[in-house]
Design a protein that fits this description.
The structure is a homodimer. Chain A is an alpha/beta fold. Chain A has a single domain, classed as Stationary-phase Survival Protein Sure Homolog, Chain: A. Chain A has helices spanning 17-26, 77-88, 114-124, 144-160, 226-231, 247-256, and strands at 5-9, 31-37, 56-59, 68-73, 95-102, 129-134, 167-172, 182-185, 191-201, 207-217, 234-240. In chain A, the strands form two sheets. In chain A, strands 3-4-2-1-5-6-7-11-8 form a nine-stranded mixed β-sheet, with helices on both faces. In chain A, helix 1 crosses helix 4 (144-160) and helix 2 runs parallel beside helix 3 (114-124). The longest helix of chain A is centred in the middle third of the chain and has 17 residues, at 144-160. At the A-B interface, helix 2, helix 3, strand 9, strand 10 and strand 11 of A face helix 2, helix 3, strand 9, strand 10 and strand 11 of B.
Chain lengths: 258, 258
């Protein structure tokens, strides 16, 4: 049997340690095609590039294994997936992975995440996919527990499959493999970013702003959420889907607004 | 009673005709605060700016009415909403509007849309919101039917309200007011972008790509969808929500993957 084909991208860019960790994990399982952004694209969500031309460049020195091919793209994570699947491949890969992200994509952060948008884009092409994130923003983060548990999850996706259009949003607590209590399948926490703009003056007395903030968990007592799982030592796996319809509200509008 | 405060943004940028049309409609209903991107940001989805500082500049000449104040921002539509709500206002506006977009945001296009992401961002702040789009990409598009029906919808949101966290994705067919058959409350169509990258050579023989494609409706016979409504002469109103959890798949994973 031919080895499975694993397509990998991320939003931290081709040089990130998390991408390297995911490629090292994946090449022990199958053939790997990497198409990653040239630059950092955190917080780029489902953005696509339409105003400047896209470029794709093969990396000759990314990995010494014959099972790994790598390209770099000047676009967003979603551009990498679209261009890679459309232009570089004639057959669909067996799975698309995005990450390993440096930092959390749990709760409402999922909506801003370039990592998860890339995985979700692949699911729109009918390919099972998974975004992996570690709750550590440091460029030097230790990904060994993510690699061990992530490897099991990749194999599960390859053997058991996912329903069409579904992608997994997987977040890992900052813990060693022996400290992690297991994997929880859970729902997205209702959370809100409490925003705070840092107002500064440039050398010419012009005002500028930096976005900062922190996530507020609006349901801290709920035990079936990704935030609860992460706070209690579990890997949080949330299956996500692209239908944004608010069905309960739709029924309310049909009844009250006609 | 004080006039309602209407916050307006878009993704086509401060100079677009659609924004002007929405401001003209809104100022007949209440006080208006515009915070719009400097440049075009179509397809920017929920992208936020974290790598360059944000700037906010008051426009002295956007509108002659005392009820209209306008700012321009160098960021994305979502940045405009976050920065405007956090920095410019001490109280929440009564409604946030985004648009009028030049082009459709129905079906799966909603996931790429900067227009709808901006409206959804406001809903995350607990403010009722609505994104308005006309299925005409032309810069010179005629927005008069959108203005007439949109005005009614804005008043409905102000008087009847929306459930917390909900935003309305409203798309208008290219028709005159007398041709439009009414407003349909519907769900997001299951659709897929059929992508096609246009490969070209620059003057130095370097390859580059332009994204193009067309939307495929995967359920053309379903009559409760936004695509059906638009194709049959209706304004399509889809309530959307930020929880991306795939609940049916979650139950399947809990049963089969443990």
């Amino acid at each position: 049997m031919q080895k499975p084909l694993i397509f990998i991208t991320n939003d931290d860019g081709i040089r990130s340690k998390g991408l390297r960790a995911l490629v090292d994990t994946a090449k022990a399982i199958g053939r790997v095609l990497v198409v990653a952004p040239e630059a950092e694209h955190s917080g780029q969500s489902h953005a696509i590039t339409t105003q400047i031309p896209l470029r794709l460049r093969k990396m000759q020195d990314y990995d010494s294994s014959d099972d790994v091919t790598a390209y770099v793209c000047n676009g967003t994570p979603v551009d990498c997936v679209k261009l890679g699947l459309t232009h570089l491949l004639s057959d669909k890969p067996d799975v698309v992975l995005s990450g390993i992200n440096h930092g959390s994509n749990s709760s409402i952060s999922v909506i801003y995440s370039g990592t998860i948008a890339a995985a979700q884009e692949a699911a729109l092409y009918g390919i099972p996919s998974m975004g992996l994130s570690l709750l550590d923003y440091a460029p030097t983060a230790n990904f060994s527990a993510v690699q061990a548990i992530g490897s099991d999850l990749i194999k599960k996706v390859l053997t058991l499959g996912l329903s069409k259009g579904i992608c997994l949003n997987v977040n890992f607590p900052i813990m060693s493999l022996s400290e992690i209590r297991g994997v929880k399948y859970c729902r997205q926490t209702n959370g809100t970013w409490n925003e705070n703009y840092d107002l500064r003056l440039d050398p010419y007395d012009g005002e500028y702003f930096w976005l900062s903030g922190s996530l507020v968990n609006n349901e801290p007592d709920a035990t079936d959420t990704d935030e609860w799982a992460l706070a209690n030592g579990y890997v949080a796996v949330v299956p996500i889907q692209p239908d944004m319809t608010a069905y309960a509200e739709l029924e309310r509008l049909k009844a009250k607004w006609q």
